[in-house]
Design brief:
69% of the residues lie in helices and 0% in strands. With 137 residues, the protein is mainly alpha-helical. It has one domain.
Length: 137
């Protein structure tokens, strides 16, 4: 999540113009900050679901490790479409790239959930897909 903010930078302002230019430069960053907040909340929701799922998983195998690695790869990719959204959020292609990235990442969480819980393969007597088992109720 910390990598999301790396792409938000203020361009260099000559020292004698900082007081005049800084407010406008900061206002220009609002779309970038908005896309940062959206992506932070999306990744946070992934993290909470991931944490809840893995609290029910009692064993692992190579397949689960690879799927989890793919999930983390897609999470690590999200700063790129987030930066695009902040800069070019009015472009349909950029919105589609962002939405596709978020959807693929969420799909990987579903695949992990299905894989771990099918036939209770890696869970201790509960299905990961069961909302009550995820929420600990």
């Amino acid at each position: 999540m910390t990598l999301l903010v790396v792409s938000i930078t203020v361009t260099q302002i000559p020292a004698n113009l900082v007081a005049q230019e800084l407010p406008n430069r900061l206002r220009e960053l609002l779309p970038n900050l908005f896309s940062y907040v959206i992506s932070f909340l999306v990744i946070f929701s992934y993290w909470t679901v991931h944490h809840s799922m893995f609290s029910t998983i009692r064993a692992y195998d190579r397949g689960l490790m690879w799927m989890n690695g793919l999930f983390l790869m897609f999470v690590a990719f999200l700063p790129f479409p987030t930066a695009l959204l902040g800069e070019y959020g009015d472009q349909l292609l950029v919105v589609a790239i962002y939405a596709g990235s978020v959807a693929i990442t969420r799909l990987m969480l579903s695949v992990i959930c299905w894989y771990a819980s099918s036939n209770y393969r890696l869970t201790a007597g509960c299905r990961v897909a069961d909302p009550q088992s995820i929420m600990g109720e």
